[in-house]
């Protein structure tokens, strides 16, 4: 993708792993909107779904592939020809398609299809070869890699490379690993597996122990050059590595992590809010980078410091993540323009008649409350949308 050895490819899986969070199902139109925002933001690869999972997933991946601009569009497939063919049918419409195929390689996961190590190795060879005959961009993942025996992991990674995989993704499927192990595993694979220098290594971390971001960044230190992540860290159980966290960590701590991405960080806040709205998963107030309080200051000492020099208590500028520097407090003296701007920040670009309606509701509420908070505004928009 690039010859720049410090360029880290951002692979977003909000629409696949993120959508697998119980209750986070998104509609077709919502998926198209999020994919467009990801593409416009400079995400390199969008994992748009799991085409064999349902007709809806297939349609969404196909449509996202057709509408894609810069981004590679990827679909997920288990290690069988039917899944891979269906995946290809959906992603082939993209200017730059990718097939991502995987199989669980740890002892616990090998026991499920009841395959011996040799049988699984053969399956990996055959399915990666099949995928590569369809598409010249193939990613392969040994699911639960971090609990797979080293010898077997090294063996199957080599088989996948020989069969034509162009990216090898190392998933920490259950969020079990620690940062030093994450770095060391990638370093060792690159150093010891024949052919490893021909492919890109990716890291895919889950957040069960709250270490997904640290593990992803450590894997990059170890030589990985693709991070798999989601907006707001959405994902199975405790979620995945949060895209906004790794992007800003590499930006803010460039002094110790000389890596960079193609993501326009000023678009982070908007997409975070849209994903929260369409998935129904609110962002916790104190969430790094995109939480409501990430750039808020309440105590007197902090406010005093901020007024004199914003760097006293802020390591990033709010503008760098797409927040307007001024925190507009909404009250009964606020006008329509302020309301429009605040709603835009929250991800709502309302038509004039809708805005007028929300404005009337807002004025009525502001008469009763000293300050109208973001959650109040979101409730007003929801009421307006449902005609209550
Ligand atoms: O967590 C995981 O192992 C996955 C794979 C399908 C890559 O999401
Ligand atoms: Zn995952």
Q: Keywords for this structure?
A:
single chain; 388 residues; 45% helix; globular; binds 3-methyl-2-oxobutanoic acid; metal-binding; leucine biosynthesis; 2-isopropylmalate synthase activity; 2-isopropylmalate synthase
List the helices and strands and how they pair.
Blueprint: E1 9-12, H1 14-18, H2 28-41, E2 45-49, H3 55-67, E3 72-78, H4 81-91, E4 97-104, H5 107-110, H6 117-134, E5 138-143, H7 150-163, E6 167-172, H8 179-192, E7 200-205, H9 212-222, E8 226-229, H10 243-252, H11 268-279, H12 300-308, H13 336-345, H14 352-368, H15 374-386
Parallel strand pairs: 1-2, 1-8, 2-3, 3-4, 4-5, 5-6, 6-7, 7-8
Binding site for Mn(2+): 17, 204, 206, 240
EC number: 2.3.3.13
GO molecular function, one term: manganese ion binding
Overall description:
It is a single chain. The protein is α/β, with parallel strands linked by helices and 388 residues long. It contains 15 helices and eight strands. Strands 1-2-3-4-5-6-7-8 form an eight-stranded parallel β-barrel, surrounded by six helices. Strand 2 (45-49), helix 3 (55-67) and strand 3 (72-78) form a beta-alpha-beta unit. Helix 4 (81-91) runs parallel beside helix 6. The longest helix has 18 residues, at 117-134. The radius of gyration is 22 Å and the shape is globular. The N and C termini lie far apart (50 Å). Mean pLDDT is 93; it is low at 298-303. The protein binds 3-methyl-2-oxobutanoic acid and zinc ion. Zinc ion is lined by residues 17, 171, 173, 204, 206, 236.
